[in-house]
Amino acid sequence: MALSLVSSSVGIPLRNSISLPLKSRLPSSSFSLHCPHFETCSGCTQENNLQHPLILDEAVAFFKNIGLPTFSFHSCRLWGWRCRAKLAIRGPSKQPLIGLYQEGTHNVVDIPDCKAHHPNINAAVELLKRGIIELNIEPYDEDEGIGELRYVQMAVTTHDTSLPASERYEHGKVQVTLVWNSRSESAPSSDKLNALANFLWRNGGHKRKFPLVHSVWVNFQTSTTNVIFGNRWRHLLGERDFWEHVGRIDVSLAPSSFGQANTQAFDSLLRKVQKQVPFGSSVADLYAGAGVIGLSLAATRKCKSVICVEVNKESKLSFEKTVERLPSNIATNISWHHADMSIEPLSWLVGSDVVIVDPPRKGLDASLIDALRTLASPNFKAKPRKSVGEKLKNEKRPWILRTREASVHIESSTTQEESQLLPQTVIYISCRWESFKEDCTKLLSGKSWHLDNAHGFNFFPGTESIEILAVFKRGPGAGKKKKGKRRRSS
Ligand SMILES: C[S@@+](CC[C@H](N)C(=O)[O-])C[C@H]1O[C@@H](n2cnc3c(N)ncnc32)[C@H](O)[C@@H]1O
């Protein structure tokens, strides 16, 4: 049963799709974390009222203050929502610790019963621990730079179409990526790596009624910095392709590509984004990862064109695989470009009427905000977007040439009319409130953009973060509504 609640303190609709008894007033403890690791683990900071993250009141006040009293907040699963986790592995091999760092330290807190994790992440962590103990795998020692296993990334796919839709989430399968402290598979410790992969596959793989392990990958990393992943990825066992179904399309996600942690909340957000994009739009999906947002729009909004721009070249393969599974009747010009958005951002904006930005936690690159403000000024004259071939003709800079080489184009035949389009809508998706606030204020300050609507999503229950979807339209807008002057109804 879907529960519809209204959060009384902020007076905003709060939708919750968790199954709960039919009661309009639930005790507040019904929304508590009940996690044995709260306080020692740095993952969660809010123990009660998970349906109402603390930052929400500030967000509501902020939007109200800039003239938007109708900010909605959507909540999904409050526990077991995290389908992607990167966990550090430390301690002795007979008693390994797998979890997050304690706040402000590099001491790993073991979190076997984490309430945010999809339950099968916890089950896979338990299995991994057994493997480490039985095979005498050495967890990484940061001080000495020695040891074998540094981190594990666990990603759950809930897209097993052989199961009834209602059972797919519960029986999600885990793609396990072991971050191994060696340069490559030819290192002497590779026998132990293979033994561990086989252990995981044998005990968690295909022979179970509901397999726990989807696949096992390795990432080789020897750097002494805090960077989790190195550049070398290898598929070891199980299915190579990892599929999820969000935003009404099947998406492929390699372990090296960015993936959203809260699959179900992301699906709600994508459906909301789709409603904001007119049919037949030309879309630029910036900070695109594997292009999930752009491709879900291509499939559902009959877009003329979708261009995706992303700095991580590893996402290209996942993009290509997702394109292969799009419905065959889509007549959209689709392309994916390996490029840094901070360099020449205007060149990615001209030619699209809808721009999606989904930046990392630090927010938008300053040069992109400048470009968005520049192109919305009345004196701006757009130069038509050049095709990639044209761009390359006179290009001498090796770094630009390299990034263009890594692009993907599907039926790219942009018309002259389309290539001069300028963005009329910017859809900002943000995972960090502080960055969003700053960028929003900068974007609005020139009066060349106004905020049309905004929505919050409970992407990270138990933490201080919420996901924001904000839609900006070109032009100054109608301005702030004056207080105290109500129009009489006729
Ligand atoms: C929050 S993720 C969003 C990914 C994608 N929209 C999705 O939902 O799957 C941010 C993405 O921006 C990429 N990124 C970070 N800095 C960038 C830059 N300067 N230029 C282009 N992409 C960048 C990251 O690699 C990452 O894939």
UniProtKB/TrEMBL annotation:
Coiled-coil boundaries: none
Q: Which InterPro entries match?
A: RNA_M5U_MTase, SAM-dependent_MTases_sf, U5_MeTrfase_fam
SUPFAM superfamilies assigned to the protein according to its UniProt record, in alphabetical order? S-adenosyl-L-methionine-dependent methyltransferases
Locate the active site. 431
- Residues reported in the UniProt entry to bind S-adenosyl-L-methionine: 260, 287, 310, 358
Q: Which domain of life is it from?
A: Eukaryota
Gene Ontology terms describing biological process: methylation; RNA processing
Keyword annotations of the record: Methyltransferase, S-adenosyl-L-methionine, Transferase
> Under the GO molecular function aspect, what terms does this record hold?
RNA methyltransferase activity
Q: Name one Pfam family in it.
A: Cons_hypoth95
The UniProt family comment states: Belongs to the class I-like SAM-binding methyltransferase superfamily. RNA M5U methyltransferase family.
What PANTHER family does this protein's entry cite?
BNAA06G32370D PROTEIN, S-ADENOSYL-L-METHIONINE-DEPENDENT METHYLTRANSFERASES SUPERFAMILY PROTEIN
Which named protein is this? Answer: Methyltransferase small domain-containing protein
**Source species of the chain:** Lithospermum erythrorhizon (Purple gromwell)
